[in-house]
Amino acid sequence: MRVGIIGATGYGGAELLRLLHQHPHVEEVVLYTSSKEGMNIQDSYPHVSTIYHQTLQSIDHTSLKQEVDTVFLATPPGVSAEWSRKIAEAGCQVIDLSGDLRLEDPAVYEKWYKREAAPLDLIKEAVYGLPEWNRKEIETANIISNPGCYPTATLLGLAPLVKNKLIETDSIIVDAKSGTSGAGRSPSAITHFSEMNENFKIYQINQHKHIPEIEQNLQKWDKEIPNITFQPHLVPMVRGIMATIYAKANQELTEKALRDIYEQSYENERFVRIRPEGAYPATKEVYGSNYCDIGVTFDERTGRITVVSVIDNVVKGASGQAIQNYNIMNGFEESTGLTLVPMYP
Ligand SMILES: NC(=O)C1=CN([C@@H]2O[C@H](COP(=O)(O)OP(=O)(O)OC[C@H]3O[C@@H](n4cnc5c(N)ncnc54)[C@H](OP(=O)(O)O)[C@@H]3O)[C@@H](O)[C@H]2O)C=CC1
Ligand SMILES: CC(=O)N[C@@H](CCC(=O)OP(=O)(O)O)C(=O)O
Predict the structure, then answer these.
(1) Whose CA is nearest to atom 6 of ligand 2?
(2) Could you tell me if 65 and 170 lie in one domain?
(3) Is residue 138 situated within a structural domain?
(4) Residue 14 pLDDT > 90, yes or no?
(5) What's the 23 CA to ligand 2 centre distance in angstroms?
(6) Which of 127, 144, 168, 285 has minimal Cβ neighbours within 10 Å of its Cβ?
(7) Catalytic residue among 149, 296, 311, 340
(8) Average pLDDT over the chain, rounded to whole?
(9) What is the reported pTM?
């Protein structure tokens, strides 16, 4: 198959290049740009030189179907809202890595993203691509809305508790930390080296755009779940997210019963690994891979459950999950091109 990447010069695009290179069903990758037409991808990313030789080309939806079968949009908010419909009507599959099509209520999108929402019919057509909990819908989708990085770690971590109604619904607190690649390639005063090295920052207190995305999905699983507390932080590393999730048990629990529920929930999932009793994952243990690793424990003293969920934000949190969705949409084995062992140390 032939795939196109819009936004190939960004971090999500670069990770798509790395992963698609080893995908056996991808014969051709076409690179599109909004600002660097004619530039060779090697000039932006020397690490893929000799592997990719393409020059970036501008996007023309009228000729798209002659060039590619599937388009990955690794672009900032607003682009997919404008382009997804045209790409789908041209006859191509769309996998959108941005948040444009994730929120079902346009008013909610406009409140949190502070920009105009995509047309409602486009939002309705898009399927939320969290394969572990939404595989059936993804199989027949033509437009995928790839989950955000924090929601991926958080929802995979919370799903067994919420789906099995094990917690006080109003007790969820998510304390999340991310490496700086989550902010994309453009330098900013918040993420540049002197600001972030030997530093640890809280940001967007009670305002992060992933809050409504997490709530929307939790409420689909259990409509009793009210608004949650989710708080992101920046840590001085490049890749990785750790979501530490706290919730109060609504019944008597044992450590073993809790772990059994997590193990059963994910026993058939290739990319979710549950740590054994007393072990908790670190971000480096998923670095460069499509895994989400989860550790869980119950504090009998406080009645609180702690879940630790880690992903590589650029892989399971973005491009790896996008390829997982691509595989499901096209009937390929779900882990095709994604069987990467994490890099360590
Ligand atoms: N980085 C991460 O960990 C994650 C990112 N995401 C989401 O994925 C998307 C891409 O993120 P990321 O790669 O980090 O971002 P970057 O800022 O690194 O790259 C975005 C790319 O989009 C292209 N672009 C910018 N404006 C336009 C436009 N108007 N039309 C078309 N293309 C445009 C640019 O390429 P060019 O100038 O060549 O067009 C740019 O290289 C974002 O929506 C982000 O929120 C989701 C999960 C995790
Ligand atoms: C560290 C950092 O800045 N992370 C980004 C998360 C990027 C992301 O996943 O955003 P989308 O929802 O647009 O895909 C942020 O907090 O906005």
Answers:
(1) 182
(2) no
(3) no
(4) yes
(5) 26
(6) 168
(7) 149
(8) 97
(9) 0.98
The last residue of a domain, from among 125, 142, 160: 125
Is the ipTM higher than 0.95? The answer is: yes
pLDDT reported for residue 111: 98
Task: Report the separation in Å between the CA atom of 182 and the middle of ligand 2, taken as the mean of its atom positions.
Answer: 5
Closest C-alpha residue for ligand 1 atom 3? 182
**Ramachandran class of 240: left when φ > 0, alpha when ψ lies in -120 to 50, beta otherwise:** left
Q: Is 79 in the pocket of ligand 1 (CB under 6 A)?
A: yes
Helical segments of 197-303, H only: 210-221, 255-265
Domain end call among 58, 91, 125: 125
Tokens of 63: 């000729």
Q: Is the CB of 98 under 6 A from ligand 1?
A: yes
**Cα–Cα distance measured from residue 109 to residue 133, given in angstroms and rounded to the nearest whole number:** 23
Given a contact cutoff of 8 angstroms between Cβ atoms, the answer to whether 8 and 31 are in contact is yes
Q: How many angstroms separate the CA atoms of 111 and 207, rounded?
A: 10
Same domain, 155 and 240: yes
Torsion angle, alpha carbons of 111, 232, 309, 306, to 10: -100
**pLDDT higher than threshold 90 for residue 46:** yes
- Ligand 1 centroid to Cα of residue 10, in Å, is 5
Catalytic residue list contains 92: no
